[in-house]
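Entry type: protein chain
Record version: 2
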Amino acid sequence: MVTNVLITGGAGFIGRHLADHLVQRGDVAVTVIDNESLGDRRHLDLDRVRFLAGDLRNRDDLRTALAGQDAVVHLAADTRVMDSIENPAFNFDNNVIGTFNLLELSRELGIRRVVAASTGGAILGDVTPPVHEEMAPRPTSPYGASKLMLEGYLSAFSASYGLSGCALRFSNIYGPRSFHKGSVVAAFYKKLLAGESLEVFGDGSQARDYLYIGDLVEAIWAAVDSDAEGAFQLGSGRPTTINELLDVMRTVTGREIEVAYGDFRPGEVRVTWCQVDKARAALGFDPTTSLEEGLRQTWEWFQSQGS
């Protein structure tokens, strides 16, 4: 039984939601390690979550955080595709070195279970959707390459050292408390609150798979509490274009939304969405939040923060 869980990068958007989800269970002790480069410990319930300031590139920090843990949810990463193209060395240091340190020390300290955040589109490249776990990887960015490394080493450590692990390929995650997130939903909502027009790279036909944060954290816990290994796609299982997303936002916000269209960005996957049959079978994954309801809850939270 899992009773002690470490969340790396746990002061970020997904980590905060996951920490709350786990402590509300009442039977899980949660520790978070975060260097606060993007996250902030003040967003955590510090009365119920043990917080450690640290960096995965520092093995002493990691050793302290891993001591006594039953499982790790590995969320810490440099996640921005365009930034990884601009500065691949920074992405490598954070995602590759940090992940390898985590796996090495988990093996040394006898951690039973590691569930790691991965990605589908950036690993697989510009392929015909729906993407699924049996597709050959062809990363189109250093970020995608770093996540492919994560999946490879997690598989190797599971086979070679008996460390049970799985990689969850997140689609585009959105929801409340994402004010500092660089995602399209958060970026659009912040501009709406500021009374600014929205900028879209391309003609708005590019499509993504949007998954609400509440559905995601339930899936993460299901993975932690299982013995499932390998890669699993997590998404809504359907594509939504930017233009369709904007239409739902107009409905939810009741606002006219002005959009300026520009050029497509190099290295960016145009259309991707995922097949979730494997996660449904192994993890009981069943997302129930509609895009309209999820965007409505997210908009209400953003409004509560003020402009």
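Comment: The mean pLDDT is 94.
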